[in-house]
Amino acid sequence: MPSLLHARARPVAILWLLVEGLSPAAAQDAETLLGQAIYAENCVECHMEDAGGDDIAPEIAGIPRNNIRRAMGGLEGMPEFELTAEEVAAVHAYLRTLDD
Ligand code: HEC
């Protein structure tokens, strides 16, 4: 898992430079897309497509950002992830779109 994240670090940095120059609405869309990509690569296998959870992992759709930040340190049954603050914000933005 960590090796995948490191391989992604440079494209993510470039994406964020682009985001800085976008209108607020476009930047928000880009942030959500980034969050979706991170989620698909690292989280979906346990938390499921709709972030509704299953018998492996709990529901995390719409979960507060602090809970995500805390979970990145690793939990019982969940590995540690090295996400930047921007990446955590992006995952948070994406998970909000899954909250119903
Ligand atoms: C190997 C399976 C697995 C993967 C992969 C995984 N999780 Fe988890 N996650 C869990 C389990 C199991 C828990 C419950 C741990 C506990 O309650 O102690 C959990 C808990 C959480 C929580 C805490 C929920 C709360 O109520 O505070 C958050 C947030 C979370 N995961 C986010 C993520 C994100 C974001 C990713 C991807 C970067 C991810 N998880 C990847 C298994 C996983």
In short:
Residues 30-100 form the Cytochrome c domain. The chain has helices at 2-20, 24-42, 44-47, 65-71, 85-97.
Give the tags:
62% helix; mainly alpha; globular; binds heme C; Cytochrome Bc1 Complex, Chain D, domain 2; 100 residues
Describe the protein's architecture and organization:
The protein has 100 residues and is mainly α. It has one domain: Cytochrome Bc1 Complex, Chain D, domain 2. The protein is built from 5 helices and no strands. The longest helix is centred in the N-terminal third of the chain and has 19 residues, at 2-20. This is Cytochrome C oxidase, cbb3-type, subunit III. It comes from Tropicimonas sediminicola. One of its GO terms (molecular function) is heme binding. Residues 30-100 form the Cytochrome c domain. InterPro entries: Cyt_c-like_dom, Cyt_c-like_dom_sf.
Report the mean per-residue pLDDT as an integer.
88
The total count of strands amounts to 0
Order of helices and strands: HHHHH
Helix count, DSSP H or I runs of 4 or more residues:
5
Strand content: under 5%
CATH topology: Cytochrome Bc1 Complex, Chain D, domain 2
CATH hierarchy class name: Mainly Alpha
**What summary fits the major beta sheet?**
none
- Just name the CATH architecture: Orthogonal Bundle
Which ranges are low-confidence, i.e. pLDDT below 50, for 5 or more consecutive residues? none
Q: How many structural domains are formed by the residues?
A: 1
Q: What is the helical fraction, as a range of percent?
A: 55-70%
Structural class: mainly alpha
Radius of gyration: 13 Å
Cα shape? globular
Span from first to last CA?
29 Å
Heteromolecules bound? heme C
